[in-house]
Write a structure and sequence with these properties.
Blueprint: E1 2-4, E2 10-12, E3 20-21, E4 24-25, H1 42-76, H2 80-96, H3 98-108, H4 110-134, H5 136-151, H6 153-164, H7 170-199, H8 202-222, H9 235-244, H10 256-260, H11 263-292, H12 298-327, H13 334-355, H14 362-376, H15 383-390, H16 395-423, H17 426-447
Antiparallel strand pairs: 1-2, 3-4
Helix pairs in contact: 1-4, 1-6, 1-7, 1-8, 1-11, 2-5, 2-16, 3-4, 3-6, 3-16, 4-5, 4-6, 4-8, 6-16, 7-8, 7-12, 11-12, 11-15, 11-16, 11-17, 12-14, 13-14, 13-15, 13-17, 15-16
Length: 458
Amino acid sequence: GGERDGDGQLVVKAPVAGGKVNGEDRGNEGALQGGGGDGGGRRRLQIVGFCFAAFILCNMDRVNLSIAMLPMSEEFGWGPSTKGLVQSSFFWGYLLTQVAGGVWADRMGGKVVLGFGVLWWSLATVLTPVAARAGLPTLLLCRAMMGVGEGVAMPAMNTLLSRWIPKQERSRSLAFVYSGMFVGSIAGLSCSPFLISNYGFESVFLLFGSFGLLWGATWYFAGASGPEEDERVGEREREYIVQSTSTRAPAEEIPWRRLLGRSEVWAIIVCHFCHNWGTFILLTWMPTYYADVLGFDLFESGFYSVLPWISMAIASNAAGYFADTQLIGKGTSVTFTRKLMQSIGFMGPAVCLSLLSSVNSPQEAVALLVISQSCDAFSQSGLYSNHQDIAPRYAGVLLGMSNTAGVLAGVLGTYAVGVILEDGSWDQVWTVAVGLYVLGTVVWNAFSTGEELEEFKA
């Protein structure tokens, strides 16, 4: 609504909690807080909460094998190469559904695709102990099928949030959702040693997988792909979201050629590969590094593996809040914000990993890994927010494209560590990761942007 001033000009009055006043973006005022003209944000917070919970389950089900690997490798007689093969098999299926998950989510909406993904990977998790005892090929297939389900989760979430979350709330919302992965790692790594010691390695797969089945049943009744078709969202909040986001309807056709013709898109793809190489090495091999190099037992490996993920959960949300309120919210360009956040996300781990070979105690090594992962968490407000910045209408498929490169890094990196360690050392493992972090920093600062590309606007 509005009224005319003394000169007869129309003055538009924005809702208290955000939107625009006389054409000027009010940024974060009241964003994601109760009350105000945005309808209080209650419904979109519910969607963010569901995504957060799904990502907790995602990493709980992924990291449980990294702890269970210790007793399983002893029981089944696996060497380093076989362990690397088992760890990497998840990524075979994960790779297959990255782009497909993005296409499905952009066309059908995120509710169906995310729900399918959680239920599929949870069922595969429950079946993992049976597959392990049936033989190595069956286990590899089961882990690959789990990857198929988890592969659609990130593109589906990206599509959901591109339709539910205004741009000025994006860094915080994405940081919070992605921190669910860190919380999942914390929960999985904390609970797994106790469960394995008391109930056997099978228990972590049965228990964690059952949580996902419960989530899926709840999401079926309470989830929604966007505010336009959701009956639970208030009218004021619906109007606020629609006016504050670029996406209006699911994409019917994907402009593949135009997407792949943009250097900004390739910056995301290349940097996703560089980022995930180091991240997935730490995700899958950290307990083994603690046990073999630092001399920790099962419980110590689980405990010290948790610390970097705790620091990531804290740093991710702090960085998201800082990016939204202190940078973008105070007039700093989105482009500068994304470049700053991602530069920290790359160079922090590069410096820390390069120092690991010179430490004198296990505690110093753990401290470096904690600092490394804390810096890595700034990527949630850099690389991982950028898909929705440059092409929100195609956010799901764009994330699917870049995460395909990221998954290739996971497959190659996770297996390469096992091969390197057959005759080499952990110093060689870290050297490769550091080189890719530096490459990513150069590419990101040279070619990325935080502005929406005109040709992809709805």
